[in-house]
Design brief:
Keywords: Coiled coil, Cytoplasm
Structural class: mainly alpha
Order of helices and strands: HH
Distance between the termini: 109 Å
Subcellular location: Cytoplasm
Shape: rod-shaped
Helix content: over 70%
Number of helices: 2
Radius of gyration: 51 Å
GO biological process, one term: de novo centriole assembly involved in multi-ciliated epithelial cell differentiation
Protein name: DEUP1 protein
Number of domains: 1
Length: 167
């Protein structure tokens, strides 16, 4: 998009330079026109030459007026086309920016929801881990108690066997 804008700026600068050159030529024509009028005034003696100078002056005036009008009209049309194109490009760029903002917002919301889900899962995992540790401790105690009872049972059984033998 920046390259397009740069290209359009360069095109405008080029057309502006052309416009200034045409204006300079018009000024030069106008200066020449003034010189011709001065010459005409100095040569009042020569009527034939005077009428031809007037005709040339009028032709030059008409031509310069026509050239200026054509140049201005062409320049205005080109400027209008460029402005329209630039406006469309800016609208397209704005639309793209809005779409990207919306997409970023949606992705941010999705990320936030995932972070919440991860935090919830981590919390549940922590609770389950605590429950598991508690159950493991209880099972360890029960196992130790079971082993103690087994040992006591063996001791009693052994005493019983010993007592039976003695009887």
């Amino acid at each position: 998009i920046e390259a397009g804008f740069s290209e359009m700026r360069n095109e405008l600068k080029s057309r502006d330079a052309l416009w200034r050159r045409i204006q300079l030529e018009c000024q030069q024509l106008h200066t020449e026109l003034l010189k011709i009028r001065e010459y005409k005034d100095m040569q009042e003696i020569q009527m034939k030459h005077q009428s031809s100078c007037v005709q040339l002056t009028e032709q030059l005036e008409n031509q310069s007026t026509e050239l200026l009008a054509q140049s201005q009209e062409c320049q205005q049309q080109e400027l209008k086309k460029i402005r329209t194109h630039l406006y469309r490009e800016e609208q397209s760029h704005c639309s793209e920016q809005e779409r990207m903002k919306t997409e970023i917002s949606d992705l941010t919301e999705e990320l936030h929801q995932k972070e919440i889900t991860i935090a919830t899962i981590m919390e549940k995992a922590s609770l389950l881990e605590k429950q598991l540790k508690t159950e493991l401790e209880m099972k360890d105690k029960l196992l130790a108690k079971q082993q103690l009872l087994d040992f006591q049972y063996k001791v009693i059984k052994s005493e019983n066997t010993h007592l039976k033998e003695m009887v």
